Amino acid sequence: MKSLINRILQDGHCLDGGILKVDRFINHQMDPYLMKQVAVEFMNRFANERPTKILTVEASGIAPAVMLGYLMELPVVFAKKKQPSTMNNFYVSKVRSFTKQRDYTLIISKEYLSSDDRVLFVDDFLAFGNTGVGVVDLCKQAGATLIGMGFIIEKEFQEGRKVLAEAGVKHIESLAIIEALENNQIKLKGVKLRKVNIYEEANRCLLCQDAPCTKACKTGDPARALRAIRFDNHKPALRWVKDCSDADLERAEQACIHYNWPIRIKEVVHSIHKDDVDDSCYPDLGIIFCGIKCENPFFLASSAVCINYEMVANAFKAGWAGVFYKTICMQEIKEVSPLFDAMHNNATHGDFYGFRNMEQLSENPVEEDFDILRRLKKDYPTKVVIASIMGQTEEEWMKLAKMAEEAGCDAVELNFSCPQMKHKGMGSDVGQSQELVNSYTACVKSSVKIPVIPKMTPNITHITEPAEACLQAGADAISAINTIKSVTMASDAEVTGRRTISGYSGRAVRPIALRHILELAQMPQKPVLSGIGGIETWRDALEFIQLGCSNVQVCTAVMQYGYRIIDDLILGLQRFMAKRGVNELQQLVGEHLPKFLNPDHLDRDTIIYPKFDKEMCVGCGRCEVSCSDGGHQAIVFDSETRRPRLVGTKCVGCHLCRLICPTGAISVTKRITKK
Length: 675
Ligand SMILES: Cc1cc2nc3c(=O)[nH]c(=O)nc-3n(C[C@H](O)[C@H](O)[C@H](O)COP(=O)(O)O)c2cc1C
Ligand code: SF4
Ligand code: SF4
Prior knowledge:
Blueprint: H1 2-11, E1 13-15, E2 19-21, H2 32-45, E3 53-57, H3 62-72, E4 76-79, E5 90-97, E6 102-109, E7 118-126, H4 130-142, E8 145-155, H5 160-166, E9 172-182, E10 185-188, H6 198-204, H7 212-217, H8 222-230, H9 246-255, H10 265-271, E11 287-289, E12 292-294, E13 298-300, H11 309-318, E14 322-324, E15 340-343, E16 354-357, H12 366-379, E17 384-389, H13 394-406, E18 411-415, H14 428-431, H15 434-447, E19 452-455, H16 464-472, E20 478-480, E21 484-486, E22 502-505, H17 510-521, E23 529-532, H18 538-546, E24 549-554, H19 556-561, H20 565-580, E25 606-607, E26 610-612, H21 622-630, E27 635-638, E28 643-646, H22 656-660, E29 666-668, E30 672-673
Parallel strand pairs: 3-4, 3-7, 7-8, 8-9, 13-14, 13-24, 14-17, 17-18, 18-19, 20-23, 23-24
Antiparallel strand pairs: 1-2, 5-6, 9-10, 11-12, 15-16, 16-22, 21-22, 25-30, 26-29, 27-28
Bound molecules: flavin mononucleotide and iron/sulfur cluster (2 copies).
């Protein structure tokens, strides 16, 4: 019974001495839905035996017995383990309990078991068969016909089936058969255990605050290890769990509060490979951006993640090198509710891939914001504090920039790109006008000495045109991108029944942001770049760096996961550099730019065929479906063996199959010349 087997593997725990703990769903907390499935299965398996009564033993057998009795419309009797004072006329049999290591009696009133009955006995476990033998005895005493016995779980290695057969039970059914409980492993008959996919498990992890698993573990930090895997630091993850024993990891797993089933912490930890990069060789991530020394390239993006002193101070303490503070303006800002909406799969609520916001600018009074920036710079002198500003007139732009300089800010970012401003002459409309961005940049440049960094809107065909206008006006660097104009249709994101176009950000926008960065990096002026858009992991950040950014900013990922993602941004980038033997981050800046060509210059004479790993393939047939309906009908699916086969003469090497295969069973062969 598949659902039962899955549940045992997910929620069952193997204890010392051959004990299987199933108290999450069978014999303490009960899952009624599973119990119903159990009863349906028993009903099917004993349908031909025509029972007239369901018999069980208190207490764990009662739930499946009642369900079965209900479905088969039969009375249910349970044998008591103690004689009630009100019961005088009864059958009794003595039984040895395996789990409790003591004898007890089974008692049934003569009123409820008689020679007219055709009895079907059901119970939660078949172990040594002692209870079953007691039931055989009771039926014999009553002259009842025992037509069979059904068990939810059978521990085959304790040989109860043999004992019952010898006692004369002809029909025995067990819905899940355990072959062995060894080394804390549950070995189920007929079940090939799928190796844990550590990324799948790390993605399921809820990334809990003050994680219960870590608290229960005591010798390590499994929650931190899972977070490292989730944020692309698989190998270094071992450092947080290397001293944990299996017992520690099992405790951690039992403490896991995942709402479906616990993260398979022990198996995940056992699957982490030893790191082949020595962390004593990790380089410093220091880099110069716009002439400013930064301890690493990771900054908070101007947004909801940095709207007051405490937030930025916390981020600095966590390891962020700098902040582009929430955009300051002179207008009164009043936000709507709800302010946000998100796009996610139904299965991954809480983990969205795209994020829409209607937030405008800082709601604080201007003086208060500059005072915050002044205090931040004073309290964290090695961190980089950049004011983001937005004016409505040249005078406002100049005034705000001067205030930023006076507050001790290291640079000023000009927000030419907010897509949801309600005020005229502000936001991404300005960012589309070369004339306006040129004149605002020029007037700010003329009023301050600190670097000036215009922030570009992606809501434009050629981002290089306004960027060029800014550079002509003396901009010291360009940052990109702000959010992308978008519409989402969820009714619970409406504002009193109304909607508006507003900015989209997060994981989904990264390829678009990278395209804009590439075009900016390819400009003849080779501007200094700060990259923004969908950065979550160090690998995402590296992509921006390799396309020419010497600084990267993060907003949505911090909103989702917190400032703590900096740990893995730093760790992963350092490890990558150590592995490549790169000492200076600057060496990576723009290293992938030469790879980009126009489409007409790409090689069209060679091909890479997909390769199928028969072991990893589970036979879902998705590759065949996609290749048939969205490719070149180059995959044949054998419905007998449930395995795909490639027809080389039809395959065009598009790799759709590889991208949709849910198990990663499709990889690549060598590139060869097309026939
Ligand atoms: C809630 C929210 C508020 C934002 N506020 C500002 C802002 O005040 N000034 C600004 O320049 N960009 C603002 N942005 C845009 C971000 O700085 C960033 O450019 C964009 O979200 C893309 O990065 P991400 O994918 O890491 O979020 C905001 C974004 C969000 C989601
Ligand atoms: S308790 Fe479970 S869900 Fe929470 S952090 Fe630990 S493993 Fe993840
Ligand atoms: S999509 Fe992957 S797992 Fe499914 S049949 Fe094809 S190769 Fe096998």
